[in-house]
Amino acid sequence: MPTYEYTCKSCGETIEAVQSFSDKPLRKHKECGGELQKVFHARGVVFKGSGFYSTDSRSSKTPSSGGASKKSDPSKKGEPSPAGAASATPPAASPTPTD
Question: What is this structure's pTM?
Fold first, then answer.
């Protein structure tokens, strides 16, 4: 359950209350009887991982990295290609025997 912060308009005291989303906001301060006002804070949001920027698109139809093209990494030579990937050259056709 979320914790909400309230400030009393009469005495200036700040209190915290753990409330459900469905609970009504507090209105009166228990100690002085003053009116309470809910305090809102700016929260920072951190996006971790890929997919949050325009340069993180999944498709490579158009280069979005300022004109730079993807080039193969020379250190990755000799690694097997993923299953189902089309090879650059088609397989050679076997000769058909003649009678």
Answer: 0.44
DSSP letters, 13-26, are -EEEEE--TTSPPP
Virtual torsion, Cα 39, 40, 41, 43, nearest 10 deg: 150
* 80/99 Cα distance (integer angstroms): 40
Inform me whether the pLDDT recorded for 85 exceeds 80. Answer: no
pLDDT confidence tier of residue 55, bands split at 50, 70 and 90: confident
- The 8-class DSSP code of residue 65 comes to S
Enter the DSSP assignment of 54: G
Q: Which of 12, 57, 59, 66 is nearest to 39 (CA)?
A: 12
User: What are the start-end ranges of the E strands in the chain?
Assistant: 3-8, 14-18, 36-39
Strand order in the sheet with 14-18: 14-18, 3-8, 36-39
